[in-house]
Amino acid sequence: MTSPRPLVTALSVLAAALLFTGCTVGPGPTSPQATSNPSSGPGDGSADLDGDMEGALLDDGRMFAIVTFGSSTCVPQVDTVTADGQTVDVTLVDVEGDQACTADMAPRATVGALPEGVDPSQDITLQVVYGDFIDDIDLTGGSFAGVPGQQTEYLPSAGWYDDRGLVLLTWGSSGCPPVIESIEGEGSAGTVTFETDDEKVCTLDMAPRATVIDFDGEVSDDEEFVLTLVGGGLDGTVTVPAQN
């Protein structure tokens, strides 16, 4: 899909500070960003190195998500990604700078792009290094139309990281990631409602935002799942592939 870059150029001239009221819908920088579901829990804000990492394929097979546990406000970011066949080496790092982290223990999703040459229709192994912690994440290939290394279509997508948890990928302002208001789900369908704040000032970019969605009800990941998005400028539906 051809992205409307002339719109971004015009807006950039009018908004030299790269800020405006509300969230952008035009494309811009696409470096991976990470967000989380800020659910409360015990912890000191650091990563839970005793737990396993989880993962999912997103963006029709062009991207991946890695779910770690730690402070919901200090999400690790991708440093390097390389591939040897279907084995992808990923290094995660903490964001540099003086940033205060909340003392909770929440699932956080970090997204990155699969290197060119990786085949998302076949199984993929992510070999992840995060500080002193090393883990392998096995991702099941599927019927994806996207090709790693090629242009995204900037459409929302989602993938299962466990039998009750999804990672939702949306595109928009990195300064205004989606904030969950409520989650409902049962069987092969669910609804996520997001907070809407039309007065919030957002950065003028188009970045991938990963949001962790955990269902309390009994949901099915062994068939196509329809996720309805409400509010936050994200209204629509996303079809989630079955977890084979």
Short synopsis of the structure:
The protein has 244 residues and is mainly beta. Helices cover 4% and strands 43% of the residues. It is built from one helix and 17 strands.
Notes on the structure:
With 244 residues, this protein is mainly beta. It has one domain (5-240). The chain has one helix at residues 5-14; strands at 19-21, 34-36, 54-58, 63-70, 77-84, 87-93, 106-113, 124-130, 133-139, 157-162, 165-172, 180-186, 189-194, 201-203, 207-214, 225-230, 236-240. It has a 4-stranded antiparallel beta sheet with strand order 2-7-4-3, with no helix packed on it. The two termini are 29 Å apart. The model is unreliable at 1-32 and 38-50 (pLDDT under 50).
Secondary structure topology:
Blueprint: H1 5-14, E1 19-21, E2 34-36, E3 54-58, E4 63-70, E5 77-84, E6 87-93, E7 106-113, E8 124-130, E9 133-139, E10 157-162, E11 165-172, E12 180-186, E13 189-194, E14 201-203, E15 207-214, E16 225-230, E17 236-240
Parallel strand pairs: 6-8, 13-16
Antiparallel strand pairs: 1-14, 2-7, 3-4, 4-7, 5-6, 8-9, 10-11, 11-15, 12-13, 16-17
What is the N-to-C order of secondary-structure elements (H for helix, E for strand)? HEEEEEEEEEEEEEEEEE
Largest sheet: 4 strands, antiparallel
Counted beta strands? 17
Assembly type? single chain
| Helix content range | under 10%
- What is the count of helical runs? 1
Label the structural class: mainly beta
Total count of domains: 1
Integer average pLDDT: 84
- For the termini, the CA-CA separation is 29 Å
User: How large is the radius of gyration?
Assistant: 17 Å
From the spread of the alpha carbons, the general shape counts as globular
Low-confidence stretches: 1-32, 38-50
Q: How large a portion of the residues is in β-strands, by DSSP E?
A: 35-45%
Question: Which strands sit side by side, in order, in the main sheet?
Answer: 2-7-4-3
